[in-house]
Amino acid sequence: MIGLDTGFFFSLQDQHPIAVQVWQERSAITSVIVLYELHRKLLKGEFNDWLRIIDDISESVEVITLNQKTALRASHIAHGTGMPGLDALILTSLLDAECNEIYTTDYHLELYQKKGIKIINLREKSK
């Protein structure tokens, strides 16, 4: 299963070819924390060309919530890698949902390195 971090949706808005292909062709999961981060951006006036972003995500991908186990595991990941808390919560929720391929634009997620988990940073992929 693939997971989508917040930055994926910025790449999608910018029509990054890999992001567009993933959006159109793959089943995906994202975290409720991603919706929180994107909604904050909407409130600040970003995504003016995609005002339905939250609805579109909710209709197109599975949005997973957090639980106590995920929160505690995220604290270990953040502590062990130096990853910011929200990034660790997003990453851990995707890992708990058995995502083994995660699309992002955030180098913080690359701090997590485990065999079988592929972090794909779209900033590093050519357009």
Provide an overview of this structure.
By secondary structure, this protein is of the alpha/beta class. The chain has one domain: 5'-nuclease (Rossmann fold). The chain is 50% helix and 14% strand. The protein is built from 6 helices and 5 strands, in the order βααβααβααββ. It has helices at 6-13, 17-25, 32-43, 53-60, 68-81, 85-96; strands at residues 2-4, 28-31, 62-64, 101-104, 118-121. It has a 5-stranded parallel sheet with strand order 3-2-1-4-5. α1 crosses α2 and α5 (68-81) crosses α6 (85-96). The chain is globular.
CATH 2nd-level architecture: 3-Layer(aba) Sandwich
Question: CATH homologous superfamily?
Answer: 5'-nuclease
The CATH class assignment is Alpha Beta
Structural class: alpha/beta
Q: How much strand?
A: 5-15%
Distance between the termini: 24 Å
In the predicted model, the low-confidence regions spanning at least 5 consecutive residues are none
Main sheet summary: 5 strands, parallel
Considering DSSP H and I runs of 4 or more, what fraction of the residues is helical? 40-55%
Search tags:
Rossmann fold; 127 residues; five-stranded parallel sheet; alpha/beta; single chain
What is the secondary structure topology, with strand pairs?
Layout: E1 2-4, H1 6-13, H2 17-25, E2 28-31, H3 32-43, H4 53-60, E3 62-64, H5 68-81, H6 85-96, E4 101-104, E5 118-121
Parallel strand pairs: 1-2, 1-4, 2-3, 4-5
Describe what is shown at a glance.
The chain is of the alpha/beta class.
